Amino acid sequence: MSPPKTFHVKSFGCQMNVYDGERMAELMAAQGLTQADAVDADVVVLNTCHIRERATEKVYSDIGRLRKDQRRKSGKTPMIAVAGCVAQAEGEEIFTRAKVDIVVGPQAYHNLPDLVAKAAAGTPSLDTDMPLLSKFGALPSRRKVAPSAFLTVQEGCDKFCTYCVVPYTRGAEISRPFAAIVDEAKALVDAGAREITLLGQNVNAWSENERGLHDLIRDLDRIPGLARIRYTTSHPNDMTQGLIDAHRDIESLMPFLHLPVQAGSDRVLKAMNRSHTRDSYLRLLDRVREVRPDIALSGDFIVGFPGETDAEFEDTLSLVDAVGYAQAYSFKYSPRPGTPAASIVEQVPESVMDERLQRLQAALNRDQHAFNAATVGRTCSVLLERAGKLPGQLIGKSPWLQSVHLIGDHAIGDLVEVTLAAAGPNSLTGIERIAEAA
């Protein structure tokens, strides 16, 4: 196989995969390869996620579809690399089932250029080592970015929730060095970012010596040109008072908190190996709202965890009613191979999970629409991120992470003061606020 000249990276799943996909693309570009569409690229990287149901089977389906599409268009067969968490979990089995060229885990993708070179020479390559953050030092400098950028500060998880594969695919919790994070943040701002979202499997577990995430945010707040800071995903166990106070004290820290709860029943939470109770979670949210009353809350939910009863599901619905989430993600439980929950005998029937998920999502959608409606009339800044479908329309984000549509003479990357004029279930319409004459 001749050395590839073009590449395509397709990422699935969480924001950390989006970040990893961007960094893999930068690696390939640094080797002189040109980005192309998947049906044209010489090498295609599938950056996979193992959290969702049937994720592994989707990877094999995508591989088959990709090969078919390329043969139909050009008659060639692309080099295929499977990266990310499915690669880490499946390892050599992917070679057996799909005969791909490269399998590389999420902690080893900095070796991708060497793996591509070996594959071009006819040697399929596997790298699922999990070194301690060595990949970040091997990655190239950040290139031009969008107005809102991701920055990974922490990886891995020590919580071992019984349904979750992350400790097995991403490894133990580890924090990137403070200086390296600040340097990358400055590079992102120099490349055009006005907002940075700090990422981690348990991002609020970030620490260095005596410093916590709130200290890191305070230092990032001093970077000229960085207007907004966000972070995700948080764990209730690591939500310190210092971080709560940061929402009161730091203007650039946006009033949005994604804090997964997963269920509203204490028995289910204990079976999930979650370290919080229903009451401790609600009291934590009260503390956050005390310092930042306008904060938008987001969460994650799993319905149909093994053994969940109708009454325990009702506990989840009542928790949703108590919180009033601005946004939330909800999923049916799906057993992940190798996790403790997968071996529990009392699996909930699929039909029961379907019905519960529909009820839960109806409640969450109700509350999201109510939150959006309650912000109508507010004046806030909107960071414009992309063009809309209508002539002159731009779409951006409010401080509360709402999608806002605006028509006006502005450019992507502008921060515009607008009045939120109308609310839909998933977005709002903004009207530019014209300053009054002195």
Description:
- The protein has helices at residues 15-30, 55-74, 85-90, 93-98, 112-120, 134-138, 166-169, 178-190, 213-220, 241-249, 266-271, 278-291, 310-323, 350-375, and strands spanning 6-11, 34-35, 43-48, 79-84, 102-104, 125-127, 148-152, 154-155, 174-175, 195-199, 207-208, 211-212, 228-232, 256-258, 296-303, 327-332, 379-387, 393-397, 403-407, 415-423, 427-432.
- With 438 residues, the chain is of the alpha/beta class.
- The strands form 6 sheets. A 6-stranded parallel sheet has the order 2-1-3-4-5-6, sandwiched between helices. Strands 17-18-19-21-20 form a 5-stranded mixed barrel.
- It starts with 5 loop residues before the first strand and ends in a 6-residue tail after the last strand.
- The mean pLDDT is 92.
Termini separation comes to 70 Å
Number of strands: 21
How are strands sequenced across the largest beta sheet?
2-1-3-4-5-6
User: What is the mean predicted local confidence, pLDDT?
Assistant: 92
Please give the radius of gyration in angstroms: 23 Å
Low-confidence parts: none
**Which band does the percent of strand residues land in?**
15-25%
Largest sheet: 6 strands, parallel
Percent in helix:
25-40%
User: Number of helical runs?
Assistant: 14
Strand-pairing-aware structural class = alpha/beta
Coarse shape: globular
